[in-house]
Amino acid sequence: MASSMSGSPQAYETPERVKAQCEAFRQTFKRLRDEVGKVIVGHQDVVDAVLTSLFAGGNVLLEGVPGLGKTLLIKTLAQALHLPFSRIQFTPDLMPADVIGTNIITEDAGGGGRRGFQFQKGPIFAQIVLADEINRATPKTQSALLEAMQERSVTVAGQTYKLDMPFFVLATQNPIEQEGTYPLPEAQLDRFLFKISVGYSKLDELMTILDRTTGSSTPEVQKVLDGPGIIAAQQLIREAIVAPHVKEYAARLVLASHPEGEHAVNATNKYVRCGSSPRGAQALLLGAKVKAVTDGRFHVSFKDVQDVAYLSLRHRLILNFEAEADRITQDEVVKQILESTPKEPLRV
Fold first, then answer.
1. Interhelix angle 227-238/15-37, nearest 10 degrees
2. Could you give the angle at which helices 278-294 and 44-56 cross, rounded to 10 degrees?
3. For 301-311, how does the pLDDT look when each residue is reduced to its tens digit (9 = 90+)?
4. CB–CB of 56/234 below 8 Å?
5. Strand 159-162 vs strand 225-226: parallel, antiparallel, or unpaired?
C-alpha cells in the first residue's frame, strides 16, 4: 500500500529525518506519476500540475476542448488513490440538491405513522470528486460547490455536515467560447488552487493513444497512496522553507496584477480590470513548495515560484474590453508580469 508517508510536522526535526521524508515523498510522487502514465499518454506537465495541486491541498480546474483526456486523467488518478471517488456530470438541468444532497421524508419503521426528515447525502460526500464539464451547469448549481471547496463542509436546512479529509474537487470545463457553457463566477474560480490548460496531443503521442485504446489489453492502475499518507505528505510540504526574499517576490507578483497599484506593470494597467486575490499568493507558495521538495530541496527558489505562476494566476485575472479587442490572454499578462517584476527585495 502506499502510505509510505507518515508522521507529523514535529517528526521532521533532524536533517536526516527531513531527508528521509523528502525522499519518501519524491518516490510516492514518481509512483503516482507512473501509474497515471499507464493510461494517460503525454501531457506530463498536466499530470505534474494535478499531482502538485493534490499535495498542496487545493482544488484544480482543467480546461480544454472535449476529448483530450481530462476526465480520464482524473478517473485514473482516483484509481491510484485509496479514497472514495464520485463523478458528477454537470448539465443545464442539474440542481444544487443533486450535488450536495437533500432532506427526504421518512416514516417510522415501528409504525404509528410518525414521519420525519432524513438527510440523503449527495455525491459531494466523497473525498475525490470529479465535477465533469462544470461550466455546462447554471451558476446556481456551480455555486453549490463553494462551501465544500472552501470550508470542507456542506450546510443543508441549517445543519452543517463535515466532509472527510482529505477532500479534493477536480473539475473539467470546456472553453467558454463553446456553445452551451456558463462562465464560472469569479468567486468560485478563486477557490481553485490551479487552472490547467490541456492542449492537443502530438503525433507520436496520438499514435500511442491509438495503440492503447484500439487494442485488446487494458492497463491496470495500482493503488499507491491512502488518505493518511496524503495528509502526512501535505504536512511535510507545508514545512518546506521559504526565505523572506522569495516570499516577497511571490507577493509582488500578485500585487503586480492589480491595476494602478504600486507594483503594477504596463500590461496590468492596460489590460486588467481586476487582479489576483491573496489566494493567488497562497497558491504560488504552496505550489512552489511541492516543486522544491519534488526536486530534492527543502527550500523554495525563485524558479519554483515562476514554475507555478501561470497555474496560480491565470484564472484570477479579469481582463477588460481592451484586452479582448487586442486578443490578449491571461497567460500573456502573466508572462509580462514575470518579465517585469524584479527578484531583488525592496526591503533590506
1. 130
2. 110
3. 999 999 999 99
4. yes
5. unpaired
Residue closest to 263 by CA, chosen among 338, 316, 314 = 338
Tell me which amino acid residue 298 is. Answer: F
**Number of Cβ atoms within 10 Å of the Cβ of 296:** 10
SS (H, E, C) the chain: CCCCCCCCHHHCCCHHHHHHHHHHHHHHHHHHHHHHHCCCCCCHHHHHHHHHHHHHCCEEEEECCCCCCHHHHHHHHHHCEECCEEEEECCCCCCHHHHHEEEEEEECCCCCCCEEEEEEECCCCCCEEEEECHHHCCHHHHHHHHHHHHHCEEEECCEEEECCCCCEEEEEECCCCCCCCCCCCHHHHCCEEEEEECCCCCHHHHHHHHHHHHCCCCCCCCCCEEHHHHHHHHHHHHCCECCHHHHHHHHHHHHCCCCCCCCCCHHHHHHEEECCCHHHHHHHHHHHHHHHHHCCCCECCHHHHHHCHHHHHHHHCEECHHHHHCCCCHHHHHHHHHHHCCCCCCCC
Residue 166 pLDDT exceeds 80: yes
pLDDT in tens, 251-299: 999 999 999 888 888 989 999 999 899 999 999 999 999 999 998 888 8
Q: What count of residues does the chain have? A: 348
Identity of the residue numbered 125:
F
The span from the CA of 233 to the CA of 5, in Å, is 6
| Confidence band of 2 (pLDDT split at 50, 70, 90) | very low
- Nearest 10 degrees: CA dihedral of 182, 167, 70, 331? 70
Q: What span, in angstroms and rounded, lies between the C-alpha atoms of 192 and 27? A: 26
**Residue found by looking up cell 509582488 in the block:** 252
Query: How far apart are the C-alpha atoms of 18 and 11, rounded to whole Å?
Result: 8
| Contact indicator for 258, 275 with CB cutoff of 8 Å | yes
Considering only CA atoms, which of 172, 135, 166 is closest in space to residue 148?
166
φ and ψ of 194, to 5 deg: -125, 150
For residue 131, give the C-alpha cell: 465535477
